[in-house]
Design goal:
214 residues; alpha+beta; Phosphorylase Kinase, domain 1; 3 domains; five-stranded antiparallel sheet; 8 strands; elongated; binds adenosine-5'-triphosphate; binds magnesium ion
Length: 214
């Protein structure tokens, strides 16, 4: 039969052991938390809700959102864009990968990586949001004539009202004719170039498209 003092001793030893194991587990968890995020950890996630949960825990709330996709600040001047809306949202990502490469850096954000299986996410260049005023000013600098945000949108959507302006600019502005030609040859949809679909490349001040999902 154990004496009272030896059972106290055993109890002390086991509580020390517990503390020690606790410390090991804690340091292991701290190490895990410190591990840099890897895109590999997104492999196998084929559910947008799960993807947003993982990215939300890692990067906090998105920096922007549209009807089909949200963008998380990621790495050094990049965003991780997620097709969250189901339906054909991933199709927008697929088109963006194609269109960004086809339009080129002068007119579009650069795409660096993407979910090759399901097109649920894209890693791309992060650009600054524009105000309406900034967008109109940039447009005037590049195209040479002042248009307001609605006219700019209608121009790229090739609205019949803007046909004369299109023809005028096509002959006058290299920036505009270059972009119009690229949109056509890349077969990129340009019906919805609203304010939030343009951004400014911070390093150069260039106006570029950030939503090429059409
Ligand atoms: N490359 C980027 N750099 C900075 N912000 C971005 C970038 N891409 C997207 N965003 C932000 O996320 C928002 C949603 O992205 P995006 O426009 O691509 O999604 P969408 O759902 O296709 O949009 P829409 O509602 O126009 O169809 C943008 O309006 C912008 O605020
Ligand atoms: Mg958009």
């Amino acid at each position: 039969m154990k004496s009272k003092s030896s059972s106290i001793f055993i109890h002390m030893k086991s509580s020390l052991l517990e503390q020690y194991v606790g410390m090991l587990v804690e340091s292991e968890l701290t190490e895990l938390a410190r591990e840099p995020f890897s895109l590999d950890s997104l492999k196998g996630i084929n559910n947008p809700k799960q993807l947003m949960k993982v990215l939300g825990q890692q990067f906090g709330p998105p920096i922007g959102g549209g009807v089909a996709r949200v963008a998380y600040a990621y790495g050094n001047n990049q965003v991780l864009k997620v097709a969250y809306a189901g339906g054909d949202a991933a199709e927008h990502n697929k088109k963006e990968v194609k269109n960004a490469a086809c339009l080129g850096k002068q007119y579009a954000i650069q795409v660096y990586d993407w979910d090759k299986e399901n097109f649920l996410w894209i890693v791309e260049e992060r650009v600054q949001k524009t105000t309406i005023e900034q967008l109109e000013t940039k447009f005037q600098e590049l195209a040479g004539i002042p248009l307001d945000i609605e006219q700019i949108r209608d121009l790229f959507a090739r609205s019949p009202d803007m046909q004369n302006v299109h023809q005028h600019l096509y002959g006058k502005s290299k920036w505009y004719s270059g972009l119009a030609d690229k949109l056509k040859s890349c077969n990129a949809g340009a019906e919805d170039f609203h304010q939030n679909n343009w951004g400014i490349r911070q390093s150069t001040g260039e106006l570029v498209l950030l939503d090429l999902g059409f």
